[in-house]
Amino acid sequence: MAEDAPGWYTAGFENIWLPYTQMKTVTPPLAVASTSGTRIRLADGRELIDGIASWWTACHGYNHPHIRAAAIAQLERLPHVMFGGLVQEPALTLARRLAALLPGDLDRVFFSDSGSVSVEIAMKMAIQYFINRGTRGRGKFLSFRHGYHGDTIGTMAVCDPDEGMHSLFTGLLPQHHVIDLPLDPEKTEAFDRFVDAHGHEIAGILVEPLVQGAGGMKMHGPEVLRALRLAADRIGALLIFDEIFVGFGRTGSMFACAAVGVQPDIVTLSKALTGGTMALAATIATRRVFDAFWDDRPSAALMHGPTYMGNALACAVANASLDLFETEPRLEQVAAIEGQLKAQLPACRDLPGVVDVRVKGAIGVVQLDRIGDLNGLKRAFVEEGVWVRPFGDIVYLTPAFVATEDEIATMTGAIRKVLASRPKAERG
């Protein structure tokens, strides 16, 4: 720990437990003093350009005045009231606006407070959908390798089973089906055989559309999603799109499902929903799914209710975030970032150890044959004045949509410089 660390850091670090971290060997995290736009200001006075928008959430940059004003105004009126038996304007307005933005009849919005929970709710909806209709035996989900849907018990069970974060819990997790996406003729044939053999037990097919995020930023085309829609219809299962990463403009359109012309039965949203300001998530179902719960029987209701469900403060800032998509040129900015990433990142292909470069919307990925000293790589990016957090075998950028051309150039330049200067022992 640095000798000049602020008092709150030295006083509190012995009591904190950090995410995805071996606390015994952890490199001390950087102390942040403030944020603004695309910048993270550290307590020691340094300033970093944020290349990953705080796990893809801060799509408008930090501290946007419109979102800040909405939070202050809502805080003065009503920060929270229980959603059991009571409702308030920000939540109902947000539900109406999300339903209007999503394609088709995805128009019933169930709020929660994290992406993992929103996927758990989608899974619960899918299973009870069949129970309410009198169909038994539909208790399995079909998901895909390189997929990631969260860290809770239910969502770990539908992530890639070989994913390092979750492999320790194999004996605890419910057993579902995780197979290859139908990306080529051979995998499509295997997918069809599997679906036809197991379709009778599958409640839902769960996928991250267009880009599988935390599983390695793997990308696929619309034809894959069309194949999943056809398969779901063939076996009578529900199709669930996990748009927690890709939703709200990240791949170039407001939602991936709308861009590819494939309507899921359930979609999950979080991350950029509040513009990186507060925790909020939503599970949104079609009328057909909702109608299976519309019944005189109390047992047919969806018995789920997070304590902070529909939090008024979070919904107010989410509405402010949607305002910005309407009034500021976010999707045009994403297109410009995509063009710049496509122009500047391919130079990394010539560097030792680089096996692939790929770009989709405001997502840029450089895949390596391996990452040796992960902490050393992170430190090198900080020394270049950028906040980039490699994982697995990739270095990636998911910047705020308001990042300038010069800021994007600084980030891509840092990636080229840092990867070019890696010790030979780490280049494979």
Model description:
The protein has 428 residues and is an alpha/beta fold. Helices cover 36% and strands 17% of the residues. The strands form 4 sheets. Strands 4-12-11-10-7-5-6 form a 7-stranded mixed β-sheet, with helices on both faces. Strands 1-2-3-15 form a 4-stranded mixed β-sheet. Strands 13-14-16 form a 3-stranded antiparallel β-sheet, covered by helices on one side. A hairpin with a 2-residue loop joins strand 1 and strand 2. Helix 3 runs antiparallel to helix 11 and helix 12 runs parallel beside helix 14. The protein is globular, with a radius of gyration of 22 Å. The chain starts with 6 loop residues before the first helix and ends in an 8-residue tail after the last helix.
Highlighted features:
single chain, 428 residues, alpha/beta, Aspartate Aminotransferase, domain 1, Aspartate Aminotransferase, domain 2, seven-stranded mixed beta sheet, four-stranded mixed beta sheet, 14 helices, 16 strands, globular
Q: What percent of residues are in strands?
A: 15-25%
Number of spatially distinct domains? 2
Main β sheet profile: 7 strands, mixed
- Indicate the low-confidence ranges by residue numbers: none
The CATH superfamily of the largest domain appears as Type I PLP-dependent aspartate aminotransferase-like (Major domain)
State the helical fraction.
25-40%
**Strands of the largest sheet, in order across it?**
4-12-11-10-7-5-6
- Under CATH at level 1, the class of the largest domain stands as Alpha Beta
Structural class from helices and strands? alpha/beta
Rounded Rg: 22 Å
The CATH architecture of the largest domain: 3-Layer(aba) Sandwich
Here the CATH topology of the largest domain equals Aspartate Aminotransferase, domain 2
Give, in order, the helices and strands: HEEEHHHEHEHEHEEEHEHEEHHHEEHEEH
Measure the end-to-end span.
32 Å
Strand tally is 16
